[in-house]
Amino acid sequence: SSSVVVGGDTPVEAAWRSLGPDTACGPSGEGGAAWEAAGSAEECKRRCEALPGCRGVDFEAATGRCRALLPEEEEEEKRGGAAAAAARGAPGKECFTLTRRAEATSKSVGVKTFVMLPLDVITSEGEINNSTALDEMLDKLQWAGVDGFMVDVWWGLTERQPQVYDFGGYRQLFEKARARGWQVQAVASFHQCGGNYGDTCNITLPDFVHSVDGIWYTDAEGSEDREYVSLWADDVPIP
Hints:
3-stranded parallel β-sheet; single chain; elongated
């Protein structure tokens, strides 16, 4: 969910994301923010949005209680190691994380931050590569306050057969951005991914393209480079 929070002179967009049932944002022991009666998760969120520095809330549906996660608690959780990780197993509670972003205006100062995802974030089978690990990485980026991510959309994965398109894995990936209130820079990549010494991915061009002769960059000795179609191959038919 999202809303607009007014803090100082700059409206701020608040993007909320649930970590799921039986989770806790902050430490479960003493020293955290006090639990207060809120009545509903939405009321709990509104209180956090009005509280400077609030990064999320824990809500307990059975009692209607609410507690805010403040920056110092976030650092405490990071230092807590295993104890902090255990706090995430919190029956009856639900953690909602908050990302704030200043609304863009024509007079805004600064540049939005986008993080490039790994080249093989979508596997050669067209699926997300280790979705759980990716979620953990994206959660850390959300805490850091980035605006979104950049990702290569490989021709070799999305059009394996002529004019038959499959963006299934990328749609799932983009939903992860939507859930965090992010923007996406999708780069249409018409070249091969990897395949050279030390590369961790190997996504070739579609087979129906890779098998065509006369469309590749060729050196004086006649050696072809089939990683990318030549810019001078406009009039060569491809099935």
